[in-house]
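Quick illustration, no need to memorize.
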Amino acid sequence: MRLARLGVNVAFVSLATLTIGCEIRMPEPPRAVDVPFTDDGRVVVKARVGARHTLNIILDTGGPSLDLALFDPSLGDSLGLDYVGEAESGTGTARVARGVRVKIGNLAFVPESVIVMDERRPNFPTQDGVIGRLVFERSVVEFDFENSVVRFHEPGGFRPGPDWRELPLQLVGGVPVIECGVNGDGSGEVSRLLFIDLGSREPLMLYADEHRGIRAPGGAPEEFVGSGAQGNVYGRRGSVLELRVGRFKLNAIGAWFVPPDTPVEIGPPGIDGVMGGDLLREFDLAFDYGNETVYVRKAGSGEEVRTAGGAPESGSAGE
């Protein structure tokens, strides 16, 4: 249970007392389902929840559970949910329901449970909820950011072209982590594990730790980055000279440098930082959790080396 993620800061509870089968059905044919999404720094799709309600749902690689979380308690009432208990969400008490059918495009599934927050989340004014590992674990999920389309492929059905690069992917606590090269200040590249978090709007957050080969920018003041369930996160704004993702390199990337002893975790244990949605939109991505692989290609056209932007804005990482 991750209670302190920045970005989409929703706790996905694990209820030992609930053993509910998860069902997903892919249509036959076609072998892939295209679903348009809107992009406000997060990937938001239209999802049919229950028999009549169409909701705006965030697709989040940072969601480690097989649940659907809803941000507004009134949605639970209008859906007529069958509540089976309560759980601590990290920001209060959440109600827990089951037996709800969800459709995204023609892809139908039943989450293990539906977690309904106790009060409306003000930092998600136009989004109704978030879903994570459930949709990534049962299909290969491709994000085409240039055309604002998410494409669901059956397992084994994704056929990458020659412009795609295949990278090994680790699932740590149910979320994706890859190894990248970070050259912070020109002193050389160090290999670091970065959590891929489509639910965060930040380009890059790094633990500033000299033992990890990552140093905070000198002279930069400590600023508020965002809030997590365990408290506020503070860091220093700066940039890294170069980030390598497989064969792709990006230059002059804005980043937050967070103290390694911060009380709020920014990802699963053992990681060195987070790549957020703002940076990930430099690429098209296809997540194949079953084969522990992520496929990457440059979004649009151009060379493999390009500039990805300057320092992030203060307080833009979370609530």
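Confidence is low (pLDDT under 50) at residues 1-21, 302-311, 314-319.
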